[in-house]
Automatic annotation (TrEMBL):
The lineage of its organism: Bacteria, Pseudomonadati, Pseudomonadota, Betaproteobacteria, Burkholderiales. Gene3D superfamilies: PK beta-barrel domain-like (2.40.33.20). It comes from Comamonas faecalis. This is MOSC domain-containing protein. Transmembrane segments: none annotated. InterPro entries: Benzoxazolinone_Detox_Enz, MoCF_Sase_C, Pyrv_Knase-like_insert_dom_sf, Tri_helical_YiiM-like. Pfam families: MOSC (PF03473), YiiM_3-alpha (PF03475). It comes from the Bacteria.
Amino acid sequence: MSSTARVIGQIHTVLRGTVQPYPRPDGSAGDRSAIDKHPVAGPVAVRALGLEGDEQGNLRVHGGPDKAVHHYAQEHYPLWRAELGELPVLQQPGAFGENLASTGVTEASLCWGDQVRIGSTLLELAQLRQPCWKLNVRFGQRDMALRLQRTGRTGWYWRVLQEGQLQAGDAIELVARPHPEWPLTRVVDVLYHHALDRTQLQQLAQLRLPASWEKLVQARLEHGQVEDWARRVHG
């Protein structure tokens, strides 16, 4: 493990949200989500399960220590506006339900297991976001979740190693990079584009993976089939 202790980015906005009723893709009621997050001024406490005051709608698939803080790169917003037009949801941070919006780091520059210090918190990169159908509703695009997968502009989640506080304007300092050979773009490629490459899957399985990812990788290796994404991406 190499210790680099260098600034690689900066937090632009810190956001949090509360659970609200959320329509299903067919327009019917019955679901709940906290994807609509709003900027927070000043320091925010970060606990093992996420930002103080932030909520998740479905704790079976959201939240938990391996999805404590969701982070999305501001660099992606101009690309989405160029592809989708000037949608109102893309005019400010938070379009993707992120807790942290930043500049300087993307899926191309971060690696699996990276440890960063932001404010007084120490975070570890735990997993990529696997986008779901709620984005289709939020953007008014039937295939928005699939678009994130195909482009690799998914965002990622941090695990909290040391609780503390962070705020807009804080530097993102890289403390450790145990797996420089595993940039997130490589993980995206294995996950979605070369999904049955046994060599890559076996190497991915050697990393510290959340339980759901361990199950996914092992199932692909054992059965030689890719899991069904339909329920996740279409609802």
